[in-house]
Design a protein that fits this description.
Layout lengths: L5 H18 L4 H8 L3 H13 L3 E3 L6 E3 L25 H5 L3 H9 L4 H7 L6 H10 L21 E13 L6 E11 L5 E6 L4 H15 L5 E4 L6 E3 L6 E2 L1 H10 L2 E4 L9 H4 L1 H8 L10 H15 L11 H9 L15 E6 L5 E4 L2 E4 L8 E6 L3 E6 L2 E7 L8 E2 L7 H8 L1 H10 L1 H12 L4 H11 L7 H13 L5 H11 L26 H12 L3
Parallel strand pairs: 3-6, 6-9, 12-16
Antiparallel strand pairs: 1-2, 3-4, 4-5, 7-8, 10-13, 11-12, 13-14, 14-15
Helix pairs in contact: 1-3, 15-16, 15-17, 16-17, 16-18, 18-19
């Protein structure tokens, strides 16, 4: 089984985005432009969505729409897939490599890539050549073009952005700390929301998003963001690789995430231009008396007035547009609240354990070396591999417990050690009272202490007969003294040790072992005595 790579999760994400876009009513051509995928690939995924019941044809039309079957939660795959490209050997590098220096010299001479390809005396496709240039970073960055006006329908989009507010002195530690603001703007009504925070981690960001959704009373169909690590693991000009935890959050709320291409802030200009405006609203706030609650109360009062003034674009008050046009178009909030999650990529160890939050959870040991995706909340930890759920464990809460393993993953000797069955079996072979005595000792639950007592009891048959040991255990139970010291004292009084099997002074008459021509050691001893004897 091949190891899971980043491309696996990228393909799972891309297939999900295509299906989500088709379910939202986007055409194949629009998905080609927005996702940067070929039309044939999107049609292939569309056909798979139809076959698996995620999509269905509109009656009397060739367009597709949302079907009754819901999408499974991320990162489960929508349908079985096979990555054939990774199995093929790329030949472009081998063909073009001898011409690399020639290509570099022509590009340095300001030749365009098109001219270099036309003058290249190699039989390779044009697209393969351009990908080769991009892979070796031989192409210059493209000139940024001005973005067209972006118009959003009611309930379509919430644009988000972080902005630094200021640096303040911590009243407790006396050290400098940075205060940030998290800004959200609805694309249609231009309704503004701001949260003052001191941390930029994932948990804080998700809590702020939940607060914004609660303030709106619903969920927009799309969230537009740039590429901070809290949202995006790998930026892309076409489809970014999102943080899996954020992907799970978006799946829970049913919102589509649009991560913008790198260096494209103009594509979410409705919130970008508001960051310096919100910073200006804090000019009247005294940061020498800063508290987070005080700063939040200050901006809330400012935003109440800000959302009630006439906006310069649509010439209406944002609060009125929100109430009259946009609230009814928002999706309903989920019935169940979002449980904050942590997601970790971890390699399956040789013993079958996966590490999560410094604890270890067992999966099938045949998956050793695979990269697993561990998703944990405050209650349980779910472990995925190659888009499939392997196991779900209750999260280990005990500080002194580090491993969790289900019974069907345990070896036979592990199960025996846990249920103490072998101790009872060996004790009952000696006698029924010994078995009863053993079960009482094990019931004390003293772990290794009990085990040492049991082994001391079971090894008494080296010196005493089984019947004597059984009688001594019966007497100890009648005296309510289930301990090894009492049994030994009773054996010293009631029984005699077993006779030795062979006296110590009995000569060794055993037949010497060895080969056919081997001589006994006594012969060599006599010869040595003759050699070293004095004349």
């Amino acid at each position: 089984m091949n190891r899971t790579k980043t491309k696996v999760l990228e393909k799972i994400t891309m297939d999900r985005k295509i299906i989500e876009g088709l379910r939202e009513g986007y055409s194949v051509n629009s998905l080609c432009k927005s996702l940067g995928k070929g039309k044939g690939y999107i049609i292939k995924i569309r056909d798979l969505g139809l076959a698996h019941g995620y999509l269905e044809y509109v009656e009397g039309s060739k367009r597709v729409q949302r079907a009754s079957r819901d999408l499974p939660p991320y990162p489960e795959v929508l349908f079985p897939w096979r990555d054939g490209r990774s199995e093929r050997v790329a030949e472009a590098d081998l063909i073009i490599e001898p011409k690399l220096e020639w290509i570099k010299s022509r590009l340095e001479a300001q030749w365009s890539p098109q001219t270099v390809f036309e003058e290249l005396s190699l039989s390779v496709p044009r697209s393969t050549f351009y990908r080769y240039l991009k892979r070796h970073k031989l192409l210059k960055s493209k000139t940024v073009r001005s973005a067209i006006e972006i118009i959003h329908s009611p309930g379509e989009c919430l644009q988000l952005d972080w902005g630094k507010l200021t640096d303040v002195k911590d009243s407790e530690t006396g050290k400098k700390k940075t205060v940030w603001m998290f800004v959200g703007t609805l694309g249609h009504s231009r309704y503004e929301m701001v949260r003052v925070v001191e941390r930029l981690d994932f948990v804080t960001t998700m809590k702020l998003l939940i607060e914004m959704f609660d303030e709106l009373g619903g969920v927009p169909r799309k969230v537009v963001i740039d590429n901070p690590k809290v949202f995006v693991q790998k930026a892309s000009s076409h489809e970014a690789f999102l943080n899996p935890a954020f992907e799970r959050f978006a799946s829970h709320y049913g919102v589509v995430v649009e991560a913008l291409p790198p260096a494209s802030p103009e594509l979410k200009g409705k919130v970008e231009r508001q960051v310096p405006v919100k910073r200006r609203l804090f000019e009247s706030y005294d940061f020498k008396k800063y508290t987070q609650s005080g700063a939040q109360a200050h901006i809330d009062a400012k935003l109440k007035l800000y959302n009630e003034r006439k906006h310069g674009t649509h010439q209406q008050r944002p609060i009125d547009v929100l109430v009259n046009d946009e609230i009814d178009q928002l999706k309903s909030l989920p019935v169940l609240g979002y449980e904050m999650e942590t997601i970790v990529n971890s390699t399956v160890r040789a013993d079958g354990y996966v590490r999560f939050d410094n604890k270890y959870y067992r999966v099938d040991s045949t998956l050793r070396g695979e990269v697993a995706l561990a998703i944990g909340n405050s209650i349980q930890v779910s472990i995925y591999c190659r888009g499939r759920l392997l196991e779900a464990y209750e999260r280990i809460q005990d500080k002194f417990t580090t491993k969790a393993c289900k019974d069907h993953y345990k070896e036979s000797w592990e199960k025996t050690l846990e249920d103490h069955g072998h101790y009872l079996k060996r004790a009952e072979e000696i006698g029924p009272n010994v078995g009863k005595f053993t079960s009482i000792v094990l019931a004390k639950g003293q772990g290794f202490v009990d085990t040492r007592v049991i082994w001391g009891l079971l090894t008494l048959n080296k010196k005493y007969t089984n019947s004597d040991i059984d009688k001594a255990c019966l007497s100890a139970l009648e005296l309510s003294q289930a301990n090894l010291k009492t049994v030994r004292q009773l054996l010293n009084i009631m029984a005699s040790p077993k006779p030795a099997s062979k006296p110590l002074d009995e000569p060794n008459t055993a037949k010497p072992t060895g080969g056919k021509f081997a001589r006994p050691m006594s012969e060599y001893t006599n010869q040595l005595r003759l050699v070293y004897s004095r004349p």
